[in-house]
């Protein structure tokens, strides 16, 4: 094997966010930019010589070229085997499953998740460790330090690999396996859910469904499982072919972007169930006929009904949610006497809890939920969970949701996103909020009296690691909350997310529109953070 070591100099903008490094494609196309980051990943790892590395991505623009570069660099750095999804395609949860199933050392996942794709849009790369989950902060901190001191990178000299042909080749001393991207994941889902019951429910017409794959990675997975295996009508999965630019759409499964699905589900003759997934397949939107299920409610309902699913029939060990996620799942955990953990945003924080069997089901308000079957959130898993639940309970989505609210109360909840805010202005908003924390307890706005105000810090109960500055919380005596947080998933400026939550026990008030019910909190939030005043904007870019 001929290996070259190419001299390089550091870039100063390669600090990973909550889900790796995300930048515009043109940034990654700069000379040696991708190579610097990949070499910094390998330089952060220990004892991987001869080990297996999984590689795959969501198929967005630059995916194929990046994989060819990574293959040659992995060979030069001493990996013994590479497992790659056919066409370079692997959903993020499928990659996690493959790492775990084949005892790989780790994996490189190429995705910018729910961000747009194309030559002028976004690309991303992250490293997943041996448990199948995103690298913990200790590793990403080391990675970032390496990006600041890198002087050269290694690359083997051999031709490009044909990513489209399933099979095995050896190049440069490394075994390269191209595998079916869907098969292992579909096998796993069949072990978790009652596929026979789902087949019957679809065949007899009790369940009709539409799934919007948004021209993203989940298309082939959903087609195979929902249509080919479970028997949903051809065309039930639409926008099913992954495209490098996601068909010009924004592959974020929410009501602001999944227009086609929303029209179907709120239209005449709506099917029983509707769902969508995002760019890399780890997020989900769940809908029924004329109803949208918030991710926070979805997590709580799954936790409350987990025993109805074959894989969780013996019960679950605990639950966890990200801090900004509504407290709906906390109420379930309290009633079922289950441990409930509140973590920072970022799926990596669930990893230790899952590995230690402290939790079985977890989720985030940002349309992500999952369980101990992999170490990533999993969009299609959530869809199958809901389908299995509908089939077992023999109820509609709306009935399941209202039944849950009657038992546990409703956490009326929404999120307001102000996207691409100038970084200096965004940081100024956070500093302004910090300056008020000590003076807020005891302050009142109408019926809302502040009980506490703090900046969330998390101590991992498994390894004792501490993560500080994870968002600002303002809690009220009546159980309501406002949370402010800068997101780490964008590529331009900063996104300020404002989370608003009000608990309502009165059944007669459960059908309120969230924006109406939360109007007072929305006004208080603006008084606290001044985002409209400081940015000149009149409304959020996205409300979910």
From TrEMBL:
Keywords: Isomerase, Magnesium, Metal-binding, Phosphoprotein. Gene3D superfamilies: Alpha-D-Glucose-1,6-Bisphosphate, subunit A, domain 3, Alpha-D-phosphohexomutase, C-terminal domain. Its EC number is 5.4.2.2. Residues 14-151, 184-287, 296-408 form the Alpha-D-phosphohexomutase alpha/beta/alpha domain. The keyword Magnesium applies. CDD domains: PGM1. It catalyses: alpha-D-glucose 1-phosphate = alpha-D-glucose 6-phosphate. Pfam families: PGM1_C_vert_fung, PGM_PMM_I, PGM_PMM_II, PGM_PMM_III. InterPro entries: A-D-PHexomutase_a/b/a-I, A-D-PHexomutase_a/b/a-I/II/III, A-D-PHexomutase_a/b/a-II, A-D-PHexomutase_a/b/a-III, A-D-PHexomutase_C_sf, A-D-PHexomutase_CS, Alpha-D-phosphohexomutase_SF, PGM. SUPFAM superfamilies: Phosphoglucomutase, C-terminal domain, Phosphoglucomutase, first 3 domains. Its cofactor is Mg(2+). PROSITE patterns: PGM_PMM. It comes from the Bacteria. NCBIfam families: PRK07564.1-1. Belongs to the phosphohexose mutase family. This is phosphoglucomutase (alpha-D-glucose-1,6-bisphosphate-dependent).
């Amino acid at each position: 094997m001929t290996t070259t070591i190419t001299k390089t100099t550091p870039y100063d903008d390669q600090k990973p966010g909550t889900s790796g490094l995300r930048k515009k494609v043109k940034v990654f196309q700069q000379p040696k930019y991708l190579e610097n980051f990949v070499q910094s990943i390998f330089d952060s790892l220990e004892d991987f010589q001869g080990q297996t590395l999984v590689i795959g991505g969501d198929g967005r623009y630059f995916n194929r070229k990046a994989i060819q570069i990574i293959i040659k660099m992995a060979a030069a750095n001493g990996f013994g085997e590479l497992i790659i999804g056919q066409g370079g395609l692997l959903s993020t949860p499928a990659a996690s499953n493959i790492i775990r199933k084949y005892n790989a050392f780790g994996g490189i996942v190429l995705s910018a998740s729910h961000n747009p794709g194309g030559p002028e849009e976004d690309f991303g790369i992250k490293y997943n460790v041996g448990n199948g989950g995103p690298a913990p902060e200790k590793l990403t901190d080391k990675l970032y330090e390496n990006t600041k001191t890198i002087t050269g990178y290694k690359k083997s000299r051999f031709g490009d690999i044909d990513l489209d042909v399933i099979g095995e080749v050896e190049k440069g001393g490394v075994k390269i396996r191209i595998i079916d991207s869907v098969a292992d994941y579909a096998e796993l889902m069949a072990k978790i859910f009652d596929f026979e019951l789902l087949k019957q429910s679809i065949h007899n017409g009790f369940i009709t469904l539409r799934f919007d794959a948004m021209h993203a990675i989940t298309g082939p997975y959903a087609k195979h499982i929902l249509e080919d295996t479970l028997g949903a009508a051809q065309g039930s999965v639409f926008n099913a072919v992954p495209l490098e630019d996601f068909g010009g759409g924004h592959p974020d499964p929410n009501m602001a972007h999944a227009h086609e699905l929303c029209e179907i589900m709120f239209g005449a003759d709506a099917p029983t169930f509707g769902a969508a997934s995002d760019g890399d397949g780890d997020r989900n939107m769940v809908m029924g006929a004329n109803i949208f299920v918030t991710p926070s409610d979805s997590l709580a309902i799954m936790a409350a009904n987990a025993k109805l699913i074959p894989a969780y029939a013996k019960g679950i060990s605990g639950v966890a949610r990200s801090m900004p996620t509504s407290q709906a799942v906390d109420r379930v955990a309290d009633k079922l006497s289950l441990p409930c953990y509140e973590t920072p945003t970022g799926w990596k924080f669930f990893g230790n809890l899952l590995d230690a069997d402290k939790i079985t089901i977890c989720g985030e308000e940002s349309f992500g939920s999952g369980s101990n079957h992999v170490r990533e959130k999993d969009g299609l898993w959530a869809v199958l969970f809901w389908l299995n639940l509908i089939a077992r309970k023999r109820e509609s989505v709306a009935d399941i949701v209202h039944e849950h609210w009657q038992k546990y109360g409703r956490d009326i909840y929404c999120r307001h996103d102000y996207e691409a805010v100038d970084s200096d202005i965004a940081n100024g908003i956070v500093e302004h909020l910090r300056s008020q924390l000590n003076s807020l307890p005891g302050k009142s706005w109408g019926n809302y009296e502040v009980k506490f105000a703090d900046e969330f810090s998390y101590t991992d109960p498994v390894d004792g690691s501490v993560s500080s500055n994870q968002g600002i919380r303002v809690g009220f005596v009546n159980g309501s909350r406002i949370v402010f947080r800068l997101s780490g998933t964008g590529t331009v400026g900063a996104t300020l997310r404002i989370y608003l939550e009000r608990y309502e026990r009165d059944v007669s008030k459960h059908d309120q529109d969230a924006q109406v019910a939360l109007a007072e909190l929305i006004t208080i939030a603006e008084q606290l953070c001044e985002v409209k005043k400081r940015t000149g904007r009149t409304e959020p870019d996205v409300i979910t």
